[in-house]
Amino acid sequence: MPISRKILTWAALVAIMAVLVVLVGPYIIGPESIEGSKNVLTTARTILLPVDGPESLDWDPRGEGPYVGVTDGRILKWSGEDLGWIEFAYSSPHRKNCSSHKVEPACGRPLGLSFEKKSGDLYFCDGYLGVMKVGPKGGLAEKVVDEVEGQKVMFANQMDIDEEEDAIYFNDSSDTYHFGDVFYAFLCGEKTGRAIRYDKKTKEAKVIMDRLHFPNGLALSKDGSFVLSCEVPTQLVHRYWAKGPNAGTRDIFAKLPGYADNIRRTETGDFWVALHSKKTPFSRLSMIHPWVGKFFIKTLKMELLVFLFEGGKPHAVAVKLSGKTGEIMEILEDSEGKNMKFISEVQERDGRLWFGSVFLPSVWVLDRQ
Question: Phi, psi (5° rounding) for residue 212?
Fold first, then answer.
């Protein structure tokens, strides 16, 4: 069959699939169910923001916050019901075209946030600019690192701080794509992601894990002995041993029931992982082979791509992992997306779970006391 006819045939199949999706939707493409999950996220309280995308949350050493990084390149601070959200910091001085709903590369895009307790400085990953830092008084952030081993940091994603060792660990999700091309990085099949250690004293950065397929979330263990990096398409959580008899080696820590965004450690040393989506028929199909994912990227509009990937039904899933064994301890859901969806992070604090979203102008709080 001539190449042109092959292309037309594929295009026709895609068009037919799109029509079927609109007609029968979730009945065919819906997300898979997870055995043993609790559908309790429907009861979480919503705190609205004036701007989209509070992707990550953290609290300063005084316990104030949370602070969140949002779509327009700023970091906002929650100051309670009376004052609401106030501006704390921003990634870039180029603020002219920054939008509350659409990412502008020149404005930056704050992602994973981590306060350093001893200094009060806020470190964060910017999906365009690299790893950044801003002091306790806020304002314009300064660049910490944007190049590692001679290679540009393209997509700094999430980070954690080892305060004893004065080291920062972070993921660089792709050597080709920035945050705005997140689905390309996810579906292209390229294993160019890296987990990186940055020594604050020597200002030297080195790759500790490479050939990762879109590593997203990253967290340090409570004792600093290992670092976890969530590889999204494979649903694997990789572990790098930073200290101890296995130092310098890596293994698999956990297998997740869906596609991870950020991972956060609890006070007890366990971990919460936010799932962007459960597995769906379309997600399985699109990752059979890299050329399948690339074909969908070229032929489908982003809105349809996201719709299919979510199974036609955006939802919310949070997974708790044992910090000792990597075993799943608990799974919480809003399976129908009635209250929560597109969650990007889960933080456990003072008997509550706090949730961020990479897309929506919402933070959610679930009281577990």
Answer: -95, 140
Q: What pTM value is reported for the model?
A: 0.91
Look up residue 93 and give its two tokens. Answer: 């001085």
Residue 29: beta bridge partners? none
Strand partners of residue 213 = none
Q: Where are the beta strands (DSSP E) in 56-103?
A: 57-58, 67-69, 74-78, 85-90
Express each pLDDT in 212-223 by its tens digit: 999 999 999 999
Residues 69-122 have pLDDT tens digits of: 999 999 999 999 999 999 999 999 999 999 999 999 999 999 999 999 999 999
Integer angstrom CA distances of residue 236 from 64, 180, 282: 33, 23, 19
Integer CA distances (angstroms), 188 to 31, 220, 233, 292, in order = 22, 28, 10, 9
CB-CB contact of 98 with 110 (8 Å):
no
Q: CATH second-level architecture of 31-49+114-133+146-347?
A: 6 Propeller (2.120)
The full set of domain ranges for the chain reads: 31-49+114-133+146-347
The residues that bridge with 67 in the sheet, in sequence order, are 58, 77
